[in-house]
Design goal:
Largest sheet: 4 strands, parallel
Radius of gyration: 19 Å
Helix content: 40-55%
Strand content: 15-25%
Number of domains: 2
Strand order of the largest sheet: 6-4-7-8
Shape: globular
Structural class: alpha/beta
CATH architecture of the largest domain: 3-Layer(aba) Sandwich
CATH topology of the largest domain: Oxidized Rhodanese, domain 1
Length: 222
């Protein structure tokens, strides 16, 4: 194999990754799987797709070695191949935000427009929690909370938030988080909390970034 053949072979393999993420639904599936192991049924529901279509997308990701599987009885569970895959996903979205004005417009119009107060950084949240000054709500679905959540957080899925507000003491400050900086669950939770008179902010990113930073994570129900 000469030098030209070596380069062609390498770039062909690099292109396998590019082809695997050249679909918005496959990028969304990577974000969902970053929350923890998920079945095809769960991923189909989370990505608003049919099971057959979801399975086809997952096979593309698996062939590119971006996801792996294991059997749990009759179910097949998908997980990210390793942390490098998640870092790649973060780099992809950061590149898109820095180069594509359309991404910035969506972030400004949806996320920043809802941030009457600055989002909380991971370091700030650790300090606030240590001082006992906030209640932390994980507004993801319960199955994602069970697989890993910020230590000390309370599971309050978005569709249960309204009913749970009556148990919050007046004056409580809440920090909500979900799947990452572009997850819409936490901004919606913060908006609802503020409408009901609570002081609320969102974490600037989400659970996968927290875990990757090596910060305290708990599993199971709190």
């Amino acid at each position: 194999m000469d030098g030209r053949e070596v380069k062609d072979t390498l770039y062909e393999q690099f292109a396998r990754i590019g082809k695997a993420v050249a679909n918005p639904k496959r990028i969304e599936l990577l974000d969902l799987i970053a929350q923890g192991e998920r079945s095809v049924d769960d991923l189909a529901a989370g990505a608003a797709m049919g099971i057959t279509n979801t399975s086809n997308h997952l096979q593309v990701l698996r062939q590119a070695r971006l996801v792996e599987t294991r059997k749990d009885g009759t179910r097949v569970l998908y997980r990210l191949a390793n942390d490098t895959v998640f870092r790649f996903s973060v780099a992809l979205r950061d590149l898109a935000r820095s180069r594509l004005a359309e991404v910035g417009e969506v972030v400004r119009d949806y996320f920043l427009a809802r941030d009457a107060l600055e989002p909380v950084s991971r370091e700030q949240l650790l300090t606030l929690m240590a001082q006992g000054e906030v209640v932390v709500f994980d507004v993801r679905p319960p199955e994602e909370f069970d697989q890993g959540h910020i230590s000390g957080a309370v599971s309050v899925p978005l569709d249960e938030l309204e009913a749970r507000l009556r148990t919050l003491p007046e004056g409580t400050e809440v920090v909500a988080y979900c799947r990452g900086p572009y997850c819409v669950l936490a901004p919606q939770a913060v908006e609802l909390l503020r409408d009901r008179g609570f002081r609320a902010r969102r974490l600037e990113d989400g659970m996968p970034e927290w875990r990757l930073a090596g910060l305290p994570v708990a599993v199971g129900q709190a």
